[in-house]
Amino acid sequence: MASQTLNSSMQPTDVYGGDEVSAIILDPGYSSVRAGFAGEDTPKSFVNSHYGVNESGTVFGDDAIHNPLAALDIRNPMSKEGIVEDWDTATRLWEYSITSRLTSFKQADPRTNGLNDDLKDMDVEMDGIEEGEKPLEEHPLLMTETAWNSPKNREKSIEIAMESWGCPAFWLARNSVMAAFGAGKATALVVDVGASTASVLAIHDGLILKKSVQKSHLAGNWLSSQLRTLFETSEPKVELVPHYMIMSKSPVDAGAPAQATYRKYEKSPTDSFRALEEERVLTEFKESVVQVWPGPGRLNSNNQMGMTNLEYAKGQPGRVFEMPDGYNQMWGVERFSVSEGMFDEKAALPIPGEQPITKAQTIPEMVKASVNAVDMDLRSQLLQNIVVTGGTTLINGFTDRLNNELVAMYPSARIKIQAAGLTAERRFGSWIGGSILGSLGTFHQMWISRKEYEEFGANVVEKRCK
Amino acid sequence: MTSHDVRDMLDLPGEAAPRPAKKQKVAAPRPVLKGLAREVQNLGGDNPIAIVPEVSVFKKKRFGSRKPAAKWENRSFKNSARDDETLVLKHWRRKDESSAAPSGEGEAVAQDGGVVEDSTFAKYNVKVITPQYDDEQYQRHLQDNNWSKDETDYLVSLARDYDLRWPIIWDRYEYQPAINLDPETAEVAIVAKAENRTLENLKARYYTVAATMMKVHKPPESMNQAEFNLLELMQNFNPNQEKSRKQFAEAAFSRTKEEAREEESLLIELKRILARSDKLAEERRELYARLEAPPSTGNIGVFTSSQGLQQLLHQLMQADKSKKRRSIMGPDGTSPAGPSGLNQQPSFDRRESSVRESTSGPSGGSNNKKGPAQPGPTERRQLAPEEMQLYGVKIPERIPSSGPSFRSEKLQKPITSKSSVQQQKMLSVLTELGIPHRLIMPTIAVGESYEALLGGIATLIDQRKVMEKIQGEINTIKEKKRREEEERAAKMSGFGGDGVGDDRDVKVEEGEREKSAAPSMSDTGGQHKRSASVLSAVSEKSTKRQKK
């Protein structure tokens, strides 16, 4: 097939552009790390970004961190902005996500692989590791980063890839660009609402326009805090008890207090562990109950019939959610109001100890600011190619609402929103784009090779990956 | 359906041994399978399920070619499009048949690294060509007060890095002038930095540089078409125009909903008007064609009286009826001239409606068709004064003794009343002015101005005649004077200057006359005639005197 000659008329349509070199795509985020081979449609390895620490060491992955008996302190190597803070742990976490599922390099027994050793023994062990097989010696690595990553962090990532993992080639790509590629666009306005940050930025021909980068914290975690506020303020107060606390429960009527027997632990789990487990319940709640008012108009604005949308939403059927302790309740208009803050700053529930959100942080305003920061000639094209990605955008009605808001904002422009229908494609949008990019034959000329790294130093990543 | 079939469909290996035996079994209960298929078909309801029963063919094909499985190898390759060509990556490729035959040897070659094939994708690497210049060339051709060489270099390098994607170049443009120790240049640099470059600014600079360098490298005369076009394109770049275009685009982009809606409705209206204007133009053209139709050769004197008209109308109506629904205005109905049928029995009602029809006639066929259906023939619509003026309706206090006549006829009068020479002259003036001899649409207003025009033409012709006459006289007098002078000169040579004063008198007198005649030329016809006659009398006198 490779030897087949192609005439010029065939080239644009008939060429299979793929040429797989078993590259590995690593897409780290605040809530999870996605890793897999380029050319596949979903990441093979999906690892929770949170990790647990106790006296005996550090544990990674969902299999280990949800153990209430281990008295784990749950931490996250990423900052609230999706940037790596704790490089040592991040490196180990990523290595875990790659080696546990992807490469032939088997993680050795934790007692001997050097990962969990004290620093004193480190030097001795390091030699052993260097002589031994490095995890990615045969695999080029394509890593994603946020658009606002610092140059220092970027250099650090190529250092890790080259020095500790021994990659033959490396590339650092922006996750929003990858998300656009995943949706099949080279020019797009990417609306990415993940766990810790929501961002809007414009991409032209596969390069981000730096002036258009907008981000705010109105994403999944913020929505969770809205839910906590909702539970706190609702009457009666809804207790958020995670699953691990429940030994048994008996069914109760809607709104009645829970009847459950609770588990007692000798060594009570840490607060951070509880927070992690509570977050799981909240995630379930978000997935099954929370909805975005789809528009037209805001939840608090009037509709054509003269009544507010809020009243209309009250008339909509509610949804029942049963807490782990058996408490259940019908959630009516509340399920709209918790998410309304993402679009209307005035509707956001106040979170104790936090600044009230501003108008500029809402998603439509971010789109507006982002569009205004690019050249006039690009704007209409961008609005026709809006790529919506990230797990939080899966909340029911999100894209409808976004579409309605944008149509109202730009009445003379054509708005077209591209949102993957499949859950996995929406959640792993940037990984999938990386998978596409990494498997392209024309991408081979882009890789930063080991030789180039050795020649120019870590600085090369700034020069090449723009 | 047996597990074997399912395995086959899903391409699963295993249980290969009992296959031949099972195959025979499958062949036997075929009819049963068919029955089952019918049940399955029932499940589909009205839509029949498409079942392809060609399983056996598929199998035969599959088992027929018992080729060994294709061999693949993890082959190394490099990419010549890379800056660093030493990077060797590996991908899985089908093993070549030739190298597969002596198995093992091919691998050895690949591992030697002797021949590493190039990636097939290397050829897709395309780079833009950016202008190249050296210091000297820059000094000579590319100096600009607003741009330092450093910044120009930076711009060109950005253009190369981002393959001339201007929105990105503008987005990433962060020129920080090199901090020089020389205070003078540093100051300049700071000034330059303060400037916030717009996209148009960057483009304009780049295109100037590129165009200039293009000309330096190759004179425009020797460029080929494509190159020259590019050069022209770059030279014609107008940043201000671009800027205003963008401002317009931005204004259009940030329209409010109301504005957008208004514009939309205006556009719809425009579309409607355009659609209608086509139809209107068509109708008008038709109308003109009919108006400019050659006048009928027959005598129209019969129709000048109201009775004659009535008769004509009646005839037309008859013709119309016989042609079945083809309106009077139809292209064929225009030439029924000729007073053939003279049986006239016009009822009053008929007459009323027909009069209305004839007045509103030229406004179009549709109007005409509607006419008889809508208003009853007995009721007569009272026209408002402005409508009267619009349609040119006049109600005379008494009917003139000659009876009603065509307005167009009346218009012809000023011409026809003149002598044939005069007529000719007037017509030629009309032709000169580009006005048809017969008015196309003799409305009252047009008629009045036409009349005025004809009056003016008559005056003009008169004036011209007078002027020619005077000119002639002046010429004769001049000639005479010349002769006299000659004579006097002859006399002077003979005897004294007698008679000189007398001559001078005459001359002065004439000069005065001419002067006094000149302003009267611009007066109205009657006055003018008088002064002309006076003038001619004077001139006669003078000639007489001269003769004396």
TrEMBL record, chain A:
Xref: InterPro entries: Actin, Actin_CS, ATPase_NBD
Superkingdom:
Eukaryota
Q: Which SMART domains match?
A: ACTIN
Family recorded in the similarity comment: Belongs to the actin family.
What Pfam families does this protein map onto? Actin
Name of the featured protein: Probable actin
Which ranges does the record mark as transmembrane?
A: none
TrEMBL record, chain B:
Main site of residence? nucleus
Q: Name one GO cellular component term.
A: NuA4 histone acetyltransferase complex
Gene3D superfamilies the UniProt entry points to: Homeodomain-like (1.10.10.60)
Q: Cite the Pfam families for this sequence.
A: SANT_DAMP1_like (PF16282)
Highest rank taxon of the organism: Eukaryota
Low complexity: which segments have biased composition?
358-372
**Region named Disordered:** 1-30, 318-380, 396-419, 479-548
Recorded GO MF terms: transcription corepressor activity
- Which parts of the sequence belong to the DAMP1 SANT/Myb-like domain? 120-214
Q: Where in the cell is it found?
A: Nucleus
Family, according to the entry, reads as follows: Belongs to the SWC4 family.
Q: What is this protein called?
A: SWR1-complex protein 4
What organism, scientifically named, is this protein from? Phialocephala subalpina
**What taxonomic ancestry is recorded?**
Eukaryota, Fungi, Dikarya, Ascomycota, Pezizomycotina
